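Format notes (please read before filing issues)

Several people have asked whether sequences and structure tokens are stored in separate files. They are not. Every record keeps both together, in the order shown below: the sequence lines, then the token lines. Line labels are part of the format and must not be stripped during preprocessing.
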Amino acid sequence: MLKKEIEANRLKVIPIVKTVIFCGRQGIALRGHRDSEMLLNANENINEPECNDGNFRQLLRFRIDAGDEYLKSHLTSCAKNATYLSWKIQNEILSACNNLILQNLVCAVNKAKGFSVLADETSDISNKEQLTICVRYVNLEQKKIREDFLQFVEVTDVSGKALAQTILQNLEIMGLELKYLIGQGYDGAAAMSGKFNGTQKHINDKYPMALYIHCGAHCLNLAISFSCNVTDIRNCMGTMQAICNFFGYPKRQNVLKISIQNELHESKLKKLKKFCPTRWVERHDAVLVFHELQPAVVDALNEISTWKDNETSALANQLSSSIHQLRFQVALLILVKVFSISAPLSKFLQTENLDLESALEFADMTQSTIKQIRDNANAEFEKIFKEVEDVCSSFDITVSVPRTTSRQKNRSNVMNNNPIEYYRISTFIPFLDNFLEQLHGRFLEHRAKLKNFNCLLPKTSKQISEETFEDFKILFNFYTDILSDSINLTSLEMGYGELKLWYNSCAFKSPNLSSTITELFFHCNPDFFPLISKLLQILITLPVTTATGERSFSSLRRLKNYLRNTTGQMRLNGLAVLNIHQDINVDPSMIIDEMAKTSNGDSILIYKCFLFII
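Then the structure lines:
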């Protein structure tokens, strides 16, 4: 009898739990302006609210309309203080969801016996500093690299030491085994990356195996940013950004849309892309889109410059004049040339299952392609300048050399009467040189971190050099603790023997050798090559980018917006893990069991009486 009553009580609450989970999964708000009225009146009819009482309660009404008798029975017979619809109960359901999903993730990370931490911070809509903590590890069951968001943590002290303590404390509270921490991935902010007092230094002092690797996507962004300091390139970017902002108003945007239809009949693009201040991958697209829509932009600016609105027409005329400059057109075509090459790398660095070796390989490929252009600068720039001349002809722009003087410090002053020579020397070559120098320098640290791991990657070799053995010895000694804990490690000599077997194995099947380190790891038999397999796992676990953390900030903006700016931290994390981890199933029965374990005041008495009748 008691068992049946418990089961009946649980069936009444499950619809409420499912509704909360549904809202969390979809990332929609639960609460409304007023959410304290009873859903059913004395006649068991649904009470229609006088004002918006939120998605949660409207969904419950929908369930009752659809014939959910358990929910209707509960709301008809329950006391007013035991409806389980209050925001407190919602928070406890979300907290239980958070705990279960977090347990699932932590279990998978600990099973991998090796993980990297990814962290970044931003301010939310309520001006609170939110630190996102993510982990990168190899999921051995799914046979793939995973980068998973764990939690948002509110921080007040953003110094390197304080952030390091916050990260380690929260990882420990979540249940992660910190002895398996082998990598750190952050952006280049001094508080995070500082060699003397940064977060990475404080964590590395406690966990020496936790190598810090600067986010590859940020490295590329910084390389491009510094390359654009060439005067003409910088001014061109500024003009394009001003034009994109100018067309950010509906009336002006409508003029541009009509111009696109008239000037570019086959174009599928309908508007310009704004220049994101932080994501340079968006700037790649923005420049390429601007180049394609330039005829329509010119036509729209000419149209707007005839308006009676003095301020708007004057600004349109100024922007149109900026476009009708030879410097601008040359810089734009140079940017299109280079960005069309670097854009694939920028997008590639956003992928989750990317390993460090592959990232550097594609960075080297991009660098070598741009170097080929630099080596053939004369021929390449002639092609670019022919396109410039075509554009100038259509826009009635005079192609000539700018005025020069014998002494000039504030702008390019190349003494040449040929416009091709002038712009090649003053703009094209400096931009390429800056880009190559920055690209090489930014990724130099990554290559240094990868150097010793090259001994695990036999390219063709049947013979093992002394340098290979030395690199292997360094790896062996550096990761001794994690190797001895994960496999039955005995001696370095046995490791040498396994390395020789590994080289012979790779040489034997070299035609079918895997193209990436990740594939190589999953094709490596951990029973026959336990040491090599573990070292390869460490290599692919090292962080490449912090794109996962950036994506979690996108979720943060959707979940904690202008209308939900008072959302508490516990509620925010529950909503975030439900919304982000769509692939992790959450069983309502397990949620109820998890809630019953809590002991936070009066609510536990309700759970015991209502759910379990203890």
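For reference, the curators noted about this record: The mean pLDDT is 87. The beta strands are 115-123, 129-139, 144-155, 181-186, 211-214.
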